[in-house]
## 1
Amino acid sequence: MPAAFNLTVALPWRHQPLIPAELSSNAEFRSVMTSQLEGATSELQVTYAADDPSFRAAVAGLPALRQLLRSLKDAVAAAQPAAPGAPSPEFQDCVRAIDAADRRAASA
C-alpha cells in the first residue's frame, strides 16, 4: 500500500472562524452538522473496509460458510428424530441460530 503525506504551512493573517457564531450556537445547525459528519465517517469506514485484503478474503469465504451452515442444519434435522426423549425447543433454538447466521452471511 503506498504511503501518502500532506503538509500545509501557512502564516495566520487574522483569526476568523470557519462557521459564524450565529450558526455555531444554533442547536439545529449543530445537530445537522453532527449527522452529516457521522454519515461521512460511516461511508469512509465502509469504503476502507471494502479495500482491505482481509475483508475481501472473508467475503470470498462466505459461500463455503453458507454451505457449512446448510450441512449443520441438515445434521440437526436428522438428529431430532434420533433423540425421541429430547425436548424439541432445543432443536428449534439451534435451527433458529443457524438460520440467523445464514441470513447474516447472505447479507454480508
## 2
Amino acid sequence: MAVKLCQVCKKEFNTFPSVIKSGNGKFCSRSCYYSYKKSNKTGKILECPVCKKSFYADPSHIRKNRKYCSQRCSSTASIGRKIVRTQTWKDNISANHHDISGLKNPNWKGGISKEETKYHNKYWKQFKAFKESVFERDNYKCKNCGSTKNLHAHHIIPRKVLKSAEFIRANGVTLCSSCHKKTPSWGGRNKDLYQYVIEKENKLNIICKYIPHCWQDYDTAGNYFVTDDGVKVFFISEMENQDFMFCVFIHEQIEQYICQKRGITQKMVDDWDLSHLELDNPGSHPDCPYYEAHMFATYIEQEIIKKLGHDWRTYDQSFDKLKW
C-alpha cells in the first residue's frame, strides 16, 4: 500500500500503487472528490436545443456529444427520428451472436417467434382497436379488483384455441397485471383447463365456457357470438347451482340456432340488448327481433328446471345475485 495526501482535506490515506499508476488516488473519499469537482469545473455551459435552457456539461459528456439538459428533452427530440440500421451494424450483431443464434440457442422452438412477430406486425391495428373497446366498456378498471393500473385486455378464449375470436369484444375483459397472471391461460399455460367442447364431427363447432358474471360483455347471464369461421361461442355466468348454469346454456343455444335459421343476425340481437339494458329481460319484449326464439327457449328452459327438481321462482331469483 502507498500513502497519499488528499488534495482537498490534506489528510493522509492508503491506496494501491496500481490506482496511482492509472492517474487516480488523489482523494481520500467520495465527498472530497465531489467537493473538488464542484469547485474546479472544467466542462462547458451548453444550451439545450429543446427547452433552450443553459446547463453544465462535464468533459466526459462533451466527449460523448451530449446535447440535452435532461432525459426528457432527449426523449422529446428523438420522437419521429428514424433509426438507420446499416449493413455493417447488422453484420456485427450477427457475428457477435453466431454461437447462440438459431438452433444453437437453448430456447429455440423451431422458429415460431418469427411467425408470431409477423402476425402481430400485420394485425397490430386490429388488436389496438380491440384493446381500446374492451377498456372503454369496462371504464378502464380491472373487472376483478377494480385497479386502474397496468391494465391488460385478457382473451377469455385464447388465440391459440380460437384465433377467429381474437378481436371480438365479447371475448375480452379488462384485468390488471396481477389478476391477469392468475388466469389459467396466462403465458399460454394450462390450455386443457378450459371448459370448452368443439364437436367438428357433427359440424356443431360449439365452445361453451363458464366465466365470472362481471366478465360478460354486458349485464346478462348468457351471451354468445359466432366467429367468421362458424364457431359458436357461449359464455355462461358462474352461479351457485350447476343445474342453473346448464339451463342458461340450453336456453342460449336454442335461441341462437332459431335466430340463425330465421336470418336474425348477431348485430340485431346485440343492438337490441344494448339499447334496452333498462329491461330485466330484453328478449321478452314483444318488439324484440328475437322474441319468438327467446320465448320458445324459455319454455324449454322451464321444462328442464322442472325435470331437474327445481322451482322456477328460485331459479329466476338466482339471477338477482349476479353483479356485473
